[in-house]
């Protein structure tokens, strides 16, 4: 067991639930659940990849360094696969830095205060909707290149949110981002048209 379930396992489980009389979830809820996964999981990862490539094209030295790391780790002419991406700190740093500069969900999901809460001089009244500006926090001058990464342990860098509602797609998204970005960098020569 690697802690992940496959798409087949997920669909089998949903089919079983839908046929089960106990009605943990009805068909309509299952449809919405799958719709949620598609909407939450597609634009977020693709826009991060686009930003990563745009930043790398603007910074050719960093692109070159990432290529060197992958050439050493994977080997020239070989395809990138997940097993080869276990120790690629430079690629990981590029993904983290892209998520820092361009978080795809900059205001996270809205929260509602369950009771009056005092944060320093500010009182958030019970029932108020609270938006957390994750982009603004991390763009401040004091916060740069946090080493802990993006996994919600350090509340200064929370592109996936944090706490009980942290993005459940985080492990999948991080693996996809490393795999796809690693493949794009390793398998193709990139430069801007007309320099
Ligand atoms: C770069 C990729 C992604 C980023 C940056 C991202 C970011 C986020 C953020 C910020 C939230 C709200 C968390 C909070 O408010 O604390 C969220 C929620 C969610 N994400 Fe992601 N996400 C990504 C990819 C994915 C993927 C691949 C999936 C699933 C396949 C996914 C599924 C979800 C779901 C279902 C929620 C709602 C969770 C809830 O309401 O409790 N996300 N995501």
TrEMBL record:
UniProt keyword annotations, A-Z: Heme, Iron, Metal-binding, Monooxygenase, Oxidoreductase
PROSITE patterns: CYTOCHROME_P450
Listed Pfam families: p450
Family recorded in the similarity comment: Belongs to the cytochrome P450 family.
Protein name per its UniProtKB record: Cytochrome P450
Organism: Hibiscus sabdariffa (roselle)
